[in-house]
Amino acid sequence: MTDVKDKLIANNETINWIPETIGKGRFGEWLRNVQDWSISRDRYWGTPLNIWECECGHRHSIGSIAELKSMSDNCPDDIELHKPYIDAVTIKCPKCGGQMKRTKEVIDCWFDSGAMPFAQWHYPFENKEIFDDNFPADFISEALDQTRGWFYSLLAISTLIFDRAPYKNVIVLGLVQDENGQKMSKSKGNAVDPFDALKKHGADAIRWYFYSNSAPWLPNRFYDAAVTEGQRTFMGTLWNTYAFFVLYANIDNFDAAKHKLDESKMRVLDKWIISKLNTLTKVVDEYLGDYKITEAARALNSFVDELSNWYVRLSRERFWSSELTDDKTAAYMTLYTVLVTLSKLCAPMTPFMSESIYRNLVCSINPAAPESVHLCDYPVFDESKIDKPLEDKMEEVGEIVTLGRACRNAAAIKNRQPLSRMFVGAENELPEFYRDIILSELNIKSLEFTSEVGKYINYSFKPQLKTLGPKLGKSIGELKNLLAAIDGKAAMAELDATGYLKVKLSDGEKQIAKEDLLIERAKVDGFIADSDHGITVVLDTTLNEELIEEGYVREVISKLQTMRKEAGFEVMDNIAVFAVCDAMLCGIIAKNKSQIMHDTLAKSIELVPSLPEETGYAKDWSINGTPCSLSVKKL
Ligand SMILES: [Zn+2]
Ligand SMILES: [Zn+2]
């Protein structure tokens, strides 16, 4: 091997190592220090070494059964090449005519593994075409410990025989550890039986865990809860979305084969998810082409999250309409297209679930379609369907909603309590369509984009002692007092404009840089703000009587809907409602009776001093702090 060291190094450079560092580092280092390889072993079991020796000192290496037979007069016709049979075969010494016997050694088993590319095809004795088609391999994968094992034996033999690398791409896998990052071992009792795990979680969930958890070359901690989590978030969400489609498509007898995805009938939200789908198809294909498996899995995961928690949630009511309108058809065809494409995109990662979704959605209505998702072509993205500005706007909507929810959380105002207004500071203002989504998601009446969100945020400042202490010495105490009394908004504006703050200390004027200050956001009364990714969201938290009343109404409706579910009523059941509460809440319920009845399918709401007997399902609640007993009865 030392003779071909340069060739080994040159051939290694043609291999795409994932990660690159193993090829250049650990494996490259091994090659630069390569030692000769003694391929014989003193064992019984193994491939018998093909060397015959004569007492005269001559040695002969046999290259085929035919050669063996031609040199031997005791080789059986159906020679079994393993021990002990092969050791009975002797050949005639070409030098002295004496009897040559096979040497007793076997071949290092790593040689067997490295001979795999041609040995598996019995090449060069047959299958030349198959071998040429399959060599070098596009891709191999094994664990990190194989740098001195299989990764090396393959390259060593291939370099000696063909002077080229036997594989183009190699993914190096990290080892699987237990929950605490310990190596699994039988003696420690922390090893997982793969068949138990498969039985418990299913093959898809286990595959998905390894694909999505971490880069392949990093160690994976394997434990039940980790697998279950991925199963719930990705597979569960995808399956529920699929089940949602199937449920309504069955109710409507919807046949996707009879419709087309008609752009003129699609809503903005439909176009958005189709755009996202094509972007997803593009990036997943690129990632997989680059062997970036975790990235591909994570792209699929976040798409499925947006599909379920944004597209389906905001489109749900369209599936509830009783007529099969153009709008409902557009929603069906959009979701159908997304689900079928997703089943193909996910097929390499969750093959069983993908197959099940594909066969039900496609094969059941199209007998001409390939009978398995695994026989389909991998999806190809359509550039004309990608609308980047639309995706960007919706992303901004998502960010604003997330910030708005964080504001509500921080102010401890739940989403059911309507608020009057919000302000957004962002580089790009959004058109009305997108504002409406934000307002409806956040339950707020109005939204204004403004460059002056700073008005609603105050700041407090403290000196960064570690850096300012040495610079200012004794004056640091004076600065601290000065900062405590400073006008936070004005100071922040000055910092944003100039990068520093001018202060007058007793030993002269100083410029304090932003990084020398500890800056904290402080509340302005009546407002709550949060910002991220260059977007600032401010909610006006002032509640007037009207908003408070609306908050009560929403709360009552929500409680009644919870009770409908708990009582096991069907979605379309009509109910009768009784309520016992104080005068204030009674007044609000009476005033908003028709809305409450409409939203809860109630035929009557009676305000009573105490719940009647035979009242149906009853429960005591605290409605925004006001005690209230409610009962619902199926009519
Ligand atoms: Zn064998
Ligand atoms: Zn001899």
Summary of the model, kept short:
The protein is built from 22 helices and 24 strands. With 635 residues, the protein is α+β, with helices and mostly antiparallel strands. The chain has 5 domains: 101 residues, no CATH class; 68 residues, no CATH class; 163 residues, Orthogonal Bundle (Isoleucyl-tRNA Synthetase, Domain 1); 132 residues, no CATH class; 90 residues.
Structure description:
It is a single chain. By secondary structure, this protein is an alpha+beta fold. It has 5 domains: 2-38 and 110-173, no CATH class; 40-107, no CATH class; 224-386, Isoleucyl-tRNA Synthetase, Domain 1 (Orthogonal Bundle), CATH 1.10.730; 410-541, no CATH class; 545-634. It contains 22 helices and 24 strands. Strands 5-4-7-6 form a 4-stranded antiparallel β-sheet. Strands 14-13-20-19 form a 4-stranded mixed β-sheet, covered by helices on one side. Strand 13, helix 16 (432-442) and strand 14 form a beta-alpha-beta unit. Helix 10 packs antiparallel against helix 13 and helix 11 runs parallel beside helix 13. It binds zinc ion (ZN) (2 copies). One zinc ion binds at residues 54, 56, 58, 93, 95-96, 98. The site of one zinc ion has 2 residues, from loops.
